[in-house]
UniProtKB/TrEMBL annotation:
<dbReference type="GO" id="GO:0036088">
    <property type="term" value="P:D-serine catabolic process"/>
</dbReference>
<dbReference type="InterPro" id="IPR029066">
    <property type="entry name" value="PLP-binding_barrel"/>
</dbReference>
<dbReference type="Pfam" id="PF01168">
    <property type="entry name" value="Ala_racemase_N"/>
</dbReference>
<dbReference type="InterPro" id="IPR001608">
    <property type="entry name" value="Ala_racemase_N"/>
</dbReference>
<dbReference type="GO" id="GO:0008721">
    <property type="term" value="F:D-serine ammonia-lyase activity"/>
</dbReference>
<feature type="domain" description="Alanine racemase N-terminal">
    <location>
        <begin position="21"/>
        <end position="210"/>
    </location>
</feature>
<protein>
    <submittedName>
        <fullName>Alanine racemase</fullName>
    </submittedName>
</protein>
<dbReference type="InterPro" id="IPR051466">
    <property type="entry name" value="D-amino_acid_metab_enzyme"/>
</dbReference>
Length: 394
């Protein structure tokens, strides 16, 4: 029995479009992340999941500790829902309303650490809450990009704090400001964690692999020096680093106390291109065939679920099952229809399902209000995504 047949059988009473999560694959991916982490705790990146049932499930496993949220409003909501009492907000906030909710909630203030990378972020909190606001937990972000030459920047554009001296200077500023408590440090090496080293041609893969090896050595030295500089000024509860693509290298750093990961639980198509790990596809969506414009083309309803990032083909959804289908270069995945082509299309009839995978882990949950959780050939339960709980954190 093929996987397509299994999923079709499990969801035979559902009308597509809909999305499913293969719970066996999700759990297996979690086990693989723990294996790769080598005993260091993993902080679950919520943006890659965006479903409380799945977040609760993974947090219940030993080895996964706390959330890394992408929005302060999201973090406060999770505290209110009782998801966890340990949350780091990975991105600085300018949301005055969420800051006021944080300040007014003792449980939230004890649980949540907000991200800062300049004194301006402290000023913004003061402006939102007033000079005599309750103590806010903060995490200092160190930029983890690779800069081999002046003017060359490889990695994501995040914190302006790059050197150990800059980290210590900002730490002193935080420690001197009333109403703030420095509790942690974070550095996300996107050029390692978020870039596949087996996703392109042989030459491209060799270049990416060379860059990543150099960057791993550089960030390990610089991060260790920055952590020493800050720890000389104050105790830190945690030092966070990495992502699903860099669990091994980040976990090997003595200065890092925990690893961030989330996409590895879901296994989207962008994570097919890594040489050292292969997550199982755990989330996918079904679209119905609504046209047969040619013998080897079937047109599906809807499907234009394009991932964020650079506007290129890697951000398109990918036909998964039945095997042997591909998008048309001229149309791609459309708002109201998505043609797929290939020999397998000859056998598709109106109403049949085609299963597709999203390019990124969490963004599928923005398109569907519910996930149907599949175990084997049955739907075990149907659970809401953030959207299904009427939550939209931007």
């Amino acid at each position: 029995m093929t996987s397509a047949t299994v999923y079709d059988l499990a969801t035979k009473d559902l009308d597509p479009p809909f999305a499913v999560v293969d719970l066996d694959a999700f759990d297996a991916n979690g086990a693989d992340l723990l294996r790769r982490a080598g005993g260091k705790p993993i902080r679950v990146v919520s943006k890659s999941v965006r479903c409380r049932y799945l977040l609760d499930r993974v947090l219940a496993r030993p080895g996964f500790e706390g959330l890394m949220c992408y929005s302060l409003a999201e973090a406060v909501w999770h505290v209110e829902q009782g998801t966890t009492d340990d949350i780091v907000v990975a991105y600085p906030t300018a949301d005055h309303g969420a800051l006021r909710r944080l300040a007014a909630n003792d449980r939230a203030r004890a649980a949540i650490s907000i991200m800062v990378d300049s004194p301006d972020h402290l000023d913004l909190v003061d402006a939102a809450l007033g000079q005599d606001h309750p103590e806010i937990r903060v995490c200092l972000e160190l930029d983890a990009s690779w800069r081999p030459l002046p003017g060359v920047h490889v990695g994501t554009r995040r914190s302006p704090v790059f050197s150990p001296r800059q980290a210590a200077d900002l730490a002193r500023t935080i420690l001197s400001r009333k109403g703030f408590r420095l509790v942690g440090m974070m550095a996300y090496e996107g050029q390692i964690a978020g870039l596949g080293d087996a996703a392109g041609s042989g030459v491209k893969n060799s270049i990416v692999g060379w860059m990543q090896r150099k960057s791993i050595v550089e960030i390990a030295k610089r991060r260790a020096a920055a952590v020493r500089a800050v720890r000389a000024l104050t105790e830190l509860e945690f030092v966070n680093g990495g992502g699903s693509g860099s669990v091994e290298s980040t976990g090997a750093e003595e200065a890092v106390t925990e690893i961030a990961a989330g996409s590895g639980l879901i296994g989207p198509t962008l994570f097919d291109g890594y040489a050292h790990f292969s997550p199982r596809p755990a989330a996918m969506f079904a679209l119905p065939v609504v046209r047969r414009p040619a013998p080897k083309i079937a047109t599906l309803f809807s499907g234009g679920y394009i991932a964020s990032g650079p506007a290129e083909s890697s951000r398109l959804p990918t036909p998964y099952l039945p095997e042997g289908l591909s998008l048309l270069g001229f149309e791609g995945a459309g708002e109201v229809q998505t043609p797929v082509a290939g020999e397998a299309a000859r056998h598709l009839r109106l109403g049949d399902r085609v299963w597709l995978r999203h390019a990124k882990a969490g963004e599928l949950a923005e398109r569907f209000t519910h996930y149907h959780v599949v175990i084997g050939d049955r739907v075990d339960r149907t659970v809401p995504t953030y959207r299904g709980e009427h939550q939209n954190f931007g």
